[in-house]
Amino acid sequence: MNRVVVTSVAAITPLGNDVDTSWQNLLEGKSGIGTITRIDTADLATTIAGEVKDFDPTEFIGKKEARRMETFTQYAVASCRMLLDRAGWTVPESERDRVGTVIGVGLGGLQSIETTHSKMLERGPGKISPFFIPILIANMAAGQVSIAAGAMGPNICTTTACASGTHGVGAAYTDIAMGRADAMICGGAESTITRLGIAGFNAMKALSVRNDEPELASRPFDADRTGFIMGEGCGLLLLESLEHAKARGAEILAEVVGFGASGDAYHMTAPPEDGSGMAYAMGGALREARVDPSKIDHINAHGTSTYLNDLCETRAIKKVFGDHAYNINICANKSQVGHLLGAAGGVEAVFAVKTIAEGVIPGTINQTNPDPECDLDVCADGPREKQVEYALSNSFGFGGTNACVLFKRFTG
């Protein structure tokens, strides 16, 4: 088995259009959630979201090519270009078949579906663009990143709802560990802040309707949480085999040492109340890494700000870690960026790696009235300076799909 390391990260989030800005605003406790600006929300129950702001795809993509990409794909390609630039690396011609892409996308092209369906009803099927299908399909993020990077290795989209991005990281890690690839661009991308997207989640009663206080609406592990806030963006990591990274003199940010996945086998949208499926995924990552639970000092929680998810994740952490659960510093990035759906796991993996590399754990904002049953340390008082040895990043999705990736400080 090859050792797998992280050599670059990139992100576009509601907190910033690059990883450094996003990370700085995260540490400063800022919220990227506000009133929705790009769609008509007059008849929607929820009128707030975590929008990406002032993004110009033509800074990274030609105008013609950008018009043939959904927003989630534009985010992915832009993030890829920033990722490789930060890595100081271009895929060599001789290695193209050894470099791949795995990018998770949960819902894909809702924007194109809405606008094209309206056009068809108004003007007939003859007015549908021949690019409609290629633009909307979820795997186009991985496909366009493959084209942009010149990567001819595995080209895969993981679509597992809110766990899509973490499954993408896990699949990429596995390919490198098994020797199928030397380097992988992986993570998640999503952009579904549309009328259909908001209305659909409203119909499920999943979104918060705390519209008058957008920055306070996402409240993971708080007793007053009322639902999640939709966000958008992209988070990508460059994974390499240790041998490949050392050969090119790459900076190593962290090591990937374990991945765990599981199914709840329980319900379409609700986890079992004992958090057993979540616990299986976390435990699987620890077993693969051969790491004792007592060694884990940080968890980047799924932390959606929904009643059942936060409660079940807390119970699952206690199930896996026992009394040590109370010693773990936990954070919930969704309190500041919202729930990025298929991109959530990618962005949160990026932040977990930054936590290890920078020696500081982000806080969790808006936990002002802690749920008595969610009694773990979620860093509600703000960031903590700490040399993190192991960071676990959790993602759990509809359909009972769970994924966890374990990062470790690289020690040679």
From TrEMBL:
* Record keywords: Acyltransferase, Fatty acid biosynthesis, Fatty acid metabolism, Lipid biosynthesis, Lipid metabolism, Transferase
Q: Where is the Ketosynthase family 3 (KS3) domain?
A: 1-409
Keyword Cytoplasm found: no
Q: Which reaction does it catalyse?
A: a fatty acyl-[ACP] + malonyl-[ACP] + H(+) = a 3-oxoacyl-[ACP] + holo-[ACP] + CO2; (9Z)-hexadecenoyl-[ACP] + malonyl-[ACP] + H(+) = 3-oxo-(11Z)-octadecenoyl-[ACP] + holo-[ACP] + CO2
Pathway assignment: Lipid metabolism; fatty acid biosynthesis
Name the EC number(s).
2.3.1.179
* Origin superkingdom: Bacteria
> What does the UniProt record say this protein does?
Involved in the type II fatty acid elongation cycle. Catalyzes the elongation of a wide range of acyl-ACP by the addition of two carbons from malonyl-ACP to an acyl acceptor. Can efficiently catalyze the conversion of palmitoleoyl-ACP (cis-hexadec-9-enoyl-ACP) to cis-vaccenoyl-ACP (cis-octadec-11-enoyl-ACP), an essential step in the thermal regulation of fatty acid composition.
Give the NCBIfam families listed for this entry: fabF, PRK06333.1, PRK07314.1
What family does the Swiss-Prot or TrEMBL record give for this protein? Belongs to the thiolase-like superfamily. Beta-ketoacyl-ACP synthases family.
PANTHER family tied to this protein: 3-OXOACYL-[ACYL-CARRIER-PROTEIN] SYNTHASE, MITOCHONDRIAL (PTHR11712:SF336), POLYKETIDE SYNTHASE-RELATED (PTHR11712)
Q: What is this protein called?
A: 3-oxoacyl-[acyl-carrier-protein] synthase 2
Q: Which organism is it from?
A: Pseudodesulfovibrio portus
Source species taxonomy: Bacteria, Pseudomonadati, Thermodesulfobacteriota, Desulfovibrionia, Desulfovibrionales
